[in-house]
Amino acid sequence: MTLAETAGITRAQEGLDGIVWNILGQTYVPKARTADSFAWHATFPPGTFVPPHIHPDQDEYIYMLEGELDFWLEGTNHKAGPGDLTRLPRDKPHGIFNKSERTVKCLFWVSPTQKLFELFTKLNNVPDPAEVVRLAEVHNIHFLPPEA
Known about the structure:
Blueprint: E1 21-23, E2 26-33, E3 38-44, E4 49-54, E5 59-66, E6 69-73, E7 76-80, E8 85-88, E9 94-97, E10 104-111, H1 116-123, H2 129-138, E11 142-143
Antiparallel strand pairs: 1-2, 2-3, 3-10, 4-9, 4-11, 5-8, 5-10, 6-7, 6-9
């Protein structure tokens, strides 16, 4: 599928085509999508997280807008706050955690897009962690065992 960017503005509270996803307790709002890049606004309520995983064929970036996230990056713990950019190179294990008592807002993007948009569409409102892991694997995102 070929995706082409169109000129325009995606408003602050809006997603592409009105899409808003609930994934693992977080809210993801897609903002831009081409074959080369996919961006979404994410809201992480306190206590929510994305378990350690790997994107074998995507680079991922997170620009922090509000709050503080804890990151597990290749076995090392880090923190990022407003104005910080977290770089998550392809094939490097990482996990994302809101251990604070504040809601976190940030902008994510990946390059290239690959199957991530389709994965988020499938994961919307999926409550079963085993099903999340299964769907992620089908879309080439690999969660690590819990001991990671």
